[in-house]
Amino acid sequence: MSRHAISASVTLRLLSGFLLIVQAWFLARVVHGVVIERLELSQVLPWMWVLLAVFPLRAFLAWLSEQASFLASARVKEAIRGRLFRHVHALGPEYLYGKRTGGLANTLIDAVEALEPYYARYLPQASLAALIPLSMLVFVLGVDWRSALVLAISGPLIPLFMIIIGKGAERLNQKQWKKLARLSAHFLDVIQGLTTLKLFNVSREEAKVVAQVSDEYHHSVMAVLRVAFLSSLALEFCSTLGVAMVAVLLGFRLLWGGIDFQSAFFVLLLAPEFFLPLRKLGASYHARMEAIGAAQGIVAVLNTPVPAPTRGTKTLKIDGGLHVVFQDVRYAYEGNRVALSGFNLRIKPAETLALVGPSGSGKSTVSSLLLNFLRAQKGTITVNGINLYDLAEDHWLSHVAWVPQRPHMFHGSIAENIRLGRPDADMDRVIEAARRAGADAFIRDLPLGYETPIGEGGRALSGGQRQLIAIARAFLKDVSLMILDEATANLDPETQEQTQRALAELARGRSALIIAHRLSTVRMADRIAAMVGGRVVEEGSHDELLALEGTYARMIKAYRSAI
Amino acid sequence: MRQVLRLLGLFASYWKWMLGGLLLSVVTFLADVGLMALAGWFIASMAIAGLTGTPFNYFIPAAAIRGLAICRSLGRYLERLVTHETAFRLIARLRVWLYDRLEPLAPARLQAYRSGDLLSRLGADIDALDNFYARLLTPVAGAVAGCAICVLFLCRYSVSAALITLGFLILAGAVTPFSVERLGAPTGEHLVEVSSRLRSQVIEGLQGMGELRVYQATERQARFIEEETRDMLRYQARMSRLNGFSEGVVGLLADLAMWFSVIMIIPLTVSGDLRGPDLAMIALFILTVFEAVAPLPNAFQMLGHTLTAARRLFALADARPAIREPDSASREPERFSIDIRGLTFRYAPAGPSVLKHINLKIEEDQRLAVIGPTGSGKTTLAHLLLRFWEYEEGEIILGGRPLKSYRSSDIRRKVAVVSQDSHLFNTTIRENILLANLNASEGRMIQAAKAAQLHDFVRSLPESYDTFVGEMGVKLSTGQIRRVAIARALLKNAPMVILDEPTEGLDPMTEKKVMEALLALMQGRCALLITHRLVGLEAMDEVVILENGEIVEQGGHADLMRKSAHYRRYHNLRFTWTP
């Protein structure tokens, strides 16, 4: 579709170019008439009227051409952005690990925008750079073959020089852009760390460093630019001198009667226009480079293979609740950072299992596997006897709810946020869920209550409040398996106790996996599994594990539980 | 307008460079116009000479044409070089100036700039000002100067043609861009809104991806993004139509200026007031003059962004520092102890009190721990002690004298700080540690690193202490960053220590060892520990619970465990394992 728009753009611009030739012809006729034939104004007026009509028509065609190119680029942007987003989502949270959201957002937004100048400007101009000069050359040839020769020789020199010098400059350009990026990054780094600099009383001296760094980069970049500009010098030289040569040659032929003035003036009017598309191409080359850079980022994402989707089609029978079994599961991030190895775990129906262990022991990997963010590389995960990967993914997820460590509040009202999993739930059910989560009280205290906008640009909720809303979400979804990641921030006994009560309530009567950090949370579980180094090392109730005097007992003693 | 004047004032010392660039730009332009006009005149003269047989000195014009062509090409090249050189110098000057203004403002007035978002906007604003000289000032000034000269030249031939040309030039160079900018302003604003909405939706879609998936809301998010994109495209299409119109109109006005002038000039040629070649020359002259105004619509568009960027930067730089330094040099404190009496503090005069009537004492070799929920004022207390903010009510006495009587740099020389946002710079690990003492020996640095449980990790890196860290280097984990900061503090060897959540993000084994190092660091020094991890409180001399800016409990750990149920509640909620 956008290909049609680009062809339309090129065609319109070409038509506009023909009108330019017509314009030049009539102007040459008028000037010839007055200068050589000594005509009066009234005699040349008809041609002047023609000119007056051509001017706006030409401008209109050029305008239409621009809109067509915009349309082309608009189609491309819309299509690519949608595709990118869905692809990233298909890649799943695993793809996001270790990547900065900001960088990916830039690809989705800015990189896609950077494609515009390529489609809207460079592509059409690339064709026009060949078509317009060629058509002009044809007309000039029809009038004066010698001038046509000069143009035909000097014209191709421009892209030639562009390529020769341009290629070298291109490589240097990339290094230069990186240097410029580092220069501005240094400045921002210094601003960000100003407090630290002040604490060590070196902030005053840093001003000198800022100046020094600017200086260094300035000099090295200018050295590069001097060479890069040579290509544009060559370009200008060829085109300007080309016009000059045409003019001088025409002049001498006029003197010796080899050509009539009208044709000569016509050629002179066209000469600069012959070079114009070529020069414009040189200018938009930069846009091409940026777009290529952007496209690389986009292509990198689109080329990342999507992990084989769970093609399963089986469904679960939930009568007695959910029974989950991990058997000899292994998962390593990016192939070599082993998070789980020989991992075995059983979550019985309506049982609350607390998963504990030091950081890096693999706890969050376990929940990620259950949530289908990751795929086990070895071993099996079964639910009520069926392999997790034989289940239809949507079907499985409809039985799971998740309260993450740092719940995300989406742009919208509190009610909409609670409804995340059940967008059609009526208000009564939303309020009931909030009540059971212990969130109803603080929500009612807010001036707009459940309609309070939160998330980006909305009201900022405290960590504790966000937790309670996330728990309300889970209550509303009302499923058989709860995966709860205990928040660790914001120590405030009231809120923490409230959250714990809510979590306990949420887990009641369902299968629940809690990744626990606080002793009091651990104590509320039916069973505890202690993990170290990617596997479960101890399993049982709190008292059983204490009696073992193993890892768990040591950890507890290290923090001297008084209870 | 004020911003423009201020910017010019800032760049005043580079006036020679700026003028140089401008002159080159004007000369190049005039060479261009001259080339085409002379060429037209030349061939017309040659034609007449050829037909009538009158002698004509063609050497000079022919040479001049070639000369002007060379002049133009070289002129353009030199202009580019000078313009870029100048732009670099101007931006360097801007950075240094901005740094000088920002330095005294940290951290109080720069709190918001710690996060990536506002920081990158600062970077974008500086880059926007880069365009001020090259794409705004020079084209506009150059157009005005160049066109003025050209119009004056035309007056020699026909005042009416000159006036017509002037009129159309003003229409093309000022009226059109201005009206288009005004017409496009509301669309431009909508665009900014929609783009930022789009960005939020995209970032949300990424950050909340997990929850979107689990709660099966992904497709909804994708559709929001598509809607925003379509909205954005609608506004962009409108802008494109306007911009296309603007470009087209400028070209049309050039043609019309030439047309009307030709109508004026033909009778003069017929009557003999002007010669034939003059007509050819003027036609080409006028067409070429309009090249000066071609970059102006673009420049007008940039004006808006540039002024906004300048306004933001000046607003930031104009902020007054939060504290007032004493005029005289500080005297050495008699002893390193802190005595806080009735301290009440609010960030803004109309805002809530963040600290209320705080009374605290830390003796020279005492360790005090402050615990409490986020936002209770703990970090504010540390910032006040470091003289980052000025307190108005109450008093802080440092070593027998009021805190305000000391220069802030003198205070910070005596305090070692480890906080959650201890920043690592884009340089080597060694340089980051040596920030504390540039003259420290390698041995002392390694000693500090060992005590901070950092040494073994650094040795495992291929480049050891010469590894580059920070944004552009190796990405260290939070725990590793913290340990570098602790090594820094250990190396500083200051009589007072402030620790703000120093073990946040460390796993229990490391935490225990680092706590040991920190306790050793606190030994014999006046030390303040701010924490919510409730680890190692038994080793502190006193513990204070700060809630909502007020002290609610105070005492030794063992005492509080016995007497205070509230303290026991905190204790019960402590962590077994780190997250």
Spatial ordering of strands, largest sheet of chain B? 6-7-8-3-9-10
**Percentage of residues in strands of chain B:** 5-15%
Please describe the biggest sheet of chain A, giving its number of strands, its sense, and whether it closes into a barrel: 6 strands, mixed
Q: What percent of the residues of chain B sit in helical stretches (DSSP H or I)?
A: 55-70%
List the uncertain runs of chain B.
none
CATH topology of the largest domain in chain A: Rossmann fold
CATH homolog superfamily of the largest domain in chain A: P-loop containing nucleotide triphosphate hydrolases
Count of individual domains of chain B: 2
Computed over alpha carbons, the radius of gyration of chain A is 36 Å
User: Beta-strand percentage of chain A?
Assistant: 5-15%
State the distance separating the first and last CA atoms of chain A: 71 Å
Mind telling me the CATH superfamily name of the largest domain in chain B? ABC transporter type 1, transmembrane domain
Rg of chain B (CA only): 35 Å
- CATH class placement of the largest domain in chain A: Alpha Beta
Tell how many strands the DSSP assignment of chain B holds: 10
General shape of chain A: elongated
Write the CATH architecture name of the largest domain in chain B.
Up-down Bundle
The main β sheet of chain B shows up as:
6 strands, mixed
